[in-house]
Amino acid sequence: MLHQLTGKHFRVQHMSIESPLDVLIVDDSKAIRKILQLVLRRTGLPINTVHEAGDGDEALRILETARPRPSIILSNINMPKMDGLELLRHVRKNPELRQVAVVLMGSGEDSEATVRTVGTLGANGYIRKPFTSDHIKEVMMSVSEKSPMTPIPENKPSSLVAPHHS
Question: pTM for this one?
Answer without folding.
Answer: 0.77
